[in-house]
Amino acid sequence: MRVKGGINSRKKKRKYLKAAKGYRGALSRRYRLAKQYYIRSGVFAYFGRKQKKRDFRKLWITRINAGARMAGLKYSELIHGLKLAGVSVNRKILAELAMNDFEAFKEYVEIAKGALTKVE
């Protein structure tokens, strides 16, 4: 007697169709298209995770630049001055300070200004 594979193929199809539930039109109903777009969505998700890191870094730099200009420096001068002063603080924290605790951010700006004037 031969073994039929209906159960396994149905299980396989159910996996993809369940994952493709929210897709529009035939993409959520037809197995072949659902499988293709399931794979494609995984690719988008992978690149999206990388893109999110870029987007946040861009946002932090914009916020730091805005705070630095309010305190009388450019972004590049601030970062260069902090590097010369040997201050190790990441952009995420600097952006947070620029937004929520401007007085503490100003102290970093003063440190950077001091380091820049020593070089000149």
Characterize the structure shown.
The protein is an all-alpha fold and 120 residues long. The protein has one domain (7-117): Ribosomal protein L20, C-terminal domain (c-terminal domain of poly(a) binding protein), CATH 1.10.1900.20. Helices cover 78% and strands 0% of the residues. The chain has helices at residues 6-19, 31-70, 75-85, 91-100, 102-119. Helix 1 packs parallel to helix 2, helix 3 (75-85) crosses helix 5 and helix 4 crosses helix 5. The longest helix is centred in the middle third of the chain and has 40 residues, at 31-70. It is rod-shaped. The termini are far apart.
Instruction: Give the amount of beta strand, in percent.
Output: under 5%
Mean pLDDT: 94
Beginning-to-end CA distance, first to last residue = 90 Å
Shape label: rod-shaped
CATH superfamily: Ribosomal protein L20, C-terminal domain
CATH hierarchy class name = Mainly Alpha
Catalogue the unreliable spans.
none
- The helix/strand series, from N terminus to C terminus, equals HHHHH
How many alpha or pi helices? 5
Structure class: mainly alpha
Number of strands: 0
CATH fold-level topology: c-terminal domain of poly(a) binding protein
Largest sheet, strands/sense/barrel:
none
What's the helical proportion of residues? over 70%
Overall number of domains:
1
- Named CATH architecture: Orthogonal Bundle
Put the structure in a nutshell.
The chain is mostly helical and 120 residues long. Helices cover 78% and strands 0% of the residues.
